[in-house]
Each structure stands twice: as structure tokens, then as C-alpha cells.
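2024-03-11 09:14:02 INFO receiving multi-entity request
2024-03-11 09:14:02 INFO entity count = two
2024-03-11 09:14:03 INFO echoing inputs for audit
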Amino acid sequence: MSRIGKKFRDLKKSGRKAFIPYIMTGHPDIARTRRLIHILEDSGADIIELGVPFSDPLADGPTIQQAAQTALQQGVTLRSVIEFVGGIRNVTQIPIILMTYYNPVFKYGEERFAADAARAGVDGVIIPDLPPDEAGTLIKHSRAHGLDTIFLLAPTSTAPRIERVTKASTGFIYYVSITGITGSKLSMDLSIESHIAAIREKSGTPIAVGFGISTPEEAAAVSRFADGVIVGSAIVKQAGRPDEEIRDYLNSLREAIR
Amino acid sequence: MPALDELDAAYRAIKKDREFLKELSQLQETYIGRPTPLYFSKRLTDYLGGARIYLKREDLAHTGAHKINNAIGQALLAKKMGKKRLIAETGAGQHGVATATGAALTGLECEIYMGSDDIARQSLNVFRMKLLGARVVEVSTGSRTLKDAINEGLRDWTTNVRTTHYVMGTVFGPHPFPSMVRDFQSVIGREAKKQILKAEGRLPDYLIACVGGGSNSIGLFNDFLGDHGVRMIGVEAGGKGIDSGEHAARFAGGSVGVLQGAKSYLLQDENGNVLGTHSVSAGLDYASVGPEHAHLRDTGRVKYTYACDEEALKAFELLSRTEGIIPALESAHAVSEASKLAPGLPKDQIIIVNLSGRGDKDVQHVARIKGIEL
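2024-03-11 09:21:47 INFO inference complete, emitting structure
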């Protein structure tokens, strides 16, 4: 079982839900990213999503777009993010997922990507612009190297799509809480809860919910019916603030997710 | 994905729907002004002294470019699908104007995404869109041109997918857009074939069209793909030259990549990030190219070349003076290629150039380049 799978199993045993923060690698700079990972783990993060900057981040709102720009200007690439993970594995064993767009992976080579990422200690990958329909090659190589492939479902997903995504996903399923881009305003819709219940009938894979969650209240509401809560833009916004302020915010999220 | 599945199903249904096709063909005739003429360009032919050059006059279509063929088709489709709102990206502004026109015609709301660099060089079209009742949203992220406008358009569509149809303006993006846009544009080649057979009694030797995303060129080429004697040339934007790195020649300077839901040739760095592009014409200033063009290039069916900014500007003036037709700067790239090719060909050979748009929108921009205050 993968490190992500074990994490969800342990959480379930102790009746807890996963807190999955997202940060952009190299925003505001790489030293800060290293520090933030320490703070996140210290504040009770269960899994960390590391953003890989891309020139055209289609699924992201202004906050993560700007963070990606900053990171690109500092020369952060898919290769350097993989090396970065390799470099911190002597200090932390927290499960790490890369969130990247498809073209950098395609250019890197899917087989080489799966091999290099797994060797560096990356546990999973999320590629928002790669539907499972087109992911056969990546899935094959990821399985071979023990890398989890996490695909996305949304409130608009139909039954055939749910089936396809649940089959292709390992580790967990990423449920996008809204139709929209990262950092949008969350409009908590009761239908999400029943939609997720319908997905559970098809699959025993844990379901984490993200996009648009920024306050402890929202995190608490989502954690009632999800196995994990992903918070991205709201944390990215604070990446440059003093450690104590970020810790306070992260602690408030951690306490809300149960 | 569900939105694309929904669109694909809807498009497949209307493709065979007699009523829809009848409505579209009536609008093509009475609203767009089709068929557009195939004009024998005698003075340009005499001036170049070689092959006979015909111009397919898409510049005479309503709103002044071929973009209307696709926009009206998609607006009708959106209406049938029960959507309330159209959104689109635009580079030169022609597709934005065409979509705003389609929205006005069908009574739908309309928002157009446009890069701030393009807004600056195409202010006339920005005002036209507003006159037509559309809201123009400035996109100042990334390279502030067409690619970024598409990103914003797709982000909007992801957010408002239930009520909104995204009118992709070119043969790019995820399926079904490339084939749907090709189908709506292929009326150009169907007409041109009939017209040249009537005028010359035979098929042409060459077809030439400019290639940004590639909709006007696919529109002209599609009906001739099975005619093996017809050679085809797609002309990309060479900008300031390939070596300068400031161009939009994806075939000459790019490699295979995946952007905005399509796999094709792409201008990118070794890490898979998309490179900035440059062209004097906003409509060709784009980092990738329609995937069907990539296929036609790899199979050798179509040859791709490029014209640099200066060559396009020269052709812009050449056609204005010899024929009294001011071409769009995009189309001037195709005219430039014709002016290189024709003199070396026998006088009984025939070239059809797709004059995809008229140049009124570019007049101010060209004056600025020439240092003339208007």
C-alpha cells in the first residue's frame, strides 16, 4: 500500500479526516517552500500538495497563476521540483503529491517522470488537464513505479465519468467542490454531499474535496462528508507572511477538519 | 469533460438535422452574403508575371472575415442547446466581432476575452464588439495575447458551463472543437471548388492560406484534400525571423506538446513551458496550431512555410495598390507567399489564395509601424 493509502487508512482507524494543504514550489522562493513544508507538517498536515509552475495554468485562479509566475521567474521546473522533493526526504516522510499540468510531464517523458518522481520520494500526481481517457501511458508507468494517480471529479460529472475516474484513481479521488477554477468563492451546495455519496457507492477510494475552501467554517462543513479537505489558494496567499500568522491560520483549519 | 461530451453529442445531432442545416444555409446566403466571390486577380497576376492568381474573397463576408462562418454556426448550436450566454477569445478581434454578431443575431449574452496587447493594436474591433452589445474583458496575464485570452475563456467556461457556450474561434482546443470549426469553415473550399471549375474548367494547382490556429486554411483545404493534383501551402507568421526567436512559426520552430486540450506543434522551452510569440498580425500570434494541421504536415499533404512581418507588410501594400483590395495583415502572409511562388510558375498554372479577411482593422496599426500619425 502506498504512503497515501496508509495515511487514509490510519486516519480512518482513528476517526479523523485528512488535511491536505497546497503550496506552489518556489513561491515566494525555494527556501521559503522548504520552511513552509516544515510548518505545514508541524501544524498537522497529513499530505502536502506541491504545485509545479506552468506557463498556462488553465485550472487556476489569479492567486496560483501569480505564484506560478513568481516560481517560473526563479527557474523552477518540473525537474527541479522532483529534485527538491528528493532533497527534503531526509527530513520529512510526509506524503507528497505533485500537482502539475500535462505538457511539462509530456515533455519530460511519462515513463521517466514516473521513475524519477517515485525515486525522489514523490507519492502521487494530480494533472488537472489530463482526463483518465488520455492517461493510459501515465497510469501504466505510475503503477509500475508505485506512484498514485489522482484524478478529478466535479459536480457536473456524469455516471460514466464517475466510473472512469474512480477506476483510474489510486490514493484518493479529488472532488472539485465547484464548477470553476482554484480560489473561487465556495458556494456550498447540498447536492455535493449526495453526489459524493453516489460516488462512494461505486468506489471505496477515499474522496478529498478542494477548490474554493478558505475558512475554518468551510473546512469544517466539507470535512463532515469528505475524507479529506484540500486548501490551496488561501494558503498560497499567505506564503510570504510571518511564520506565526501562518501557523495560527493552519491550526484553525486543522482544528476544523475532523 | 461533461461539457465537452454534451457539446459533442449536440453537435453530432445537429450535423444531421435538416432543419438546422437549412437555417444555417439560409443565414449563410442572406446574412453572411455567401457564396463569397472567387476573384481573378488580373493585375496582380500580370505584375508577378507567372501563375494565374485567384482570390477567395472571405473579406467580403459579413463582418469582414471568414470567422463569421464558424461563429454563426456555433451561435445557432448554442441556442439549440438552450445556452444563455456566448463567450469567446479573440486575437485580431475578428472572431470576437463575429461572435458578438452571432450573439446579437440569436439574442444571447456575450463576453469576449482579449489580451491587453491585442486590445491596444486592434482598438477599432474592440469598439465594434461593444457596439454589437458584447462586453470585452481585458486579459493582462501571461503574454497578454490570444493564448492567454483562450486560457481566460476556458476558465470562464469551466465556471459557467451550465449556462454558457464557449465559441472556440479556430480549429484548436479539445474535441469536438477542431472538427466542428473545420466543418463550419469548409464551406469556403466547397464554394471555391465549384467556382474554379466554372471559371477555369479544372482544379487549381495550388491553394495558399495563412495559418494562425488554422481555421481559414482548413476551411479552404478540406474539400480538396482528396484531389491529389492540388498542392497546398499553409503560411505561418515568421515575425522578425525564426532565428530571432520572435515569431509564431510552430512548424519551423516548435515541437510536439499539449496545450489547452490539444496535442500539436507548440512553441515551448525544454521544460514544457509555452514560449512567447510575436507577429505583426494579432490573428497569427499564437503558440500552437490546430492538431489537424500537425497531421497534414506529418503526412506531407500540406506544406508549411512562413512569411516575416516585413514580407507581410509588403504584400499588404502590393495587393492594395495592384487590386484595390486592402487585405487583413493575416491574409497578407498568404499573399506574400503567392508573390514568391507565382513568378516561377508557368502562366497556365492556377493558384487560389484565401483572402481570409479585410484590412480595415489593420490600417491604424500599419500607419503606426510606418511612423504616420492619423
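2024-03-11 09:21:48 INFO post-check: Chain A touches chain B through 33 residues (CB under 8 Å).
2024-03-11 09:21:48 INFO post-check: The mean pLDDT of chain A is 95.
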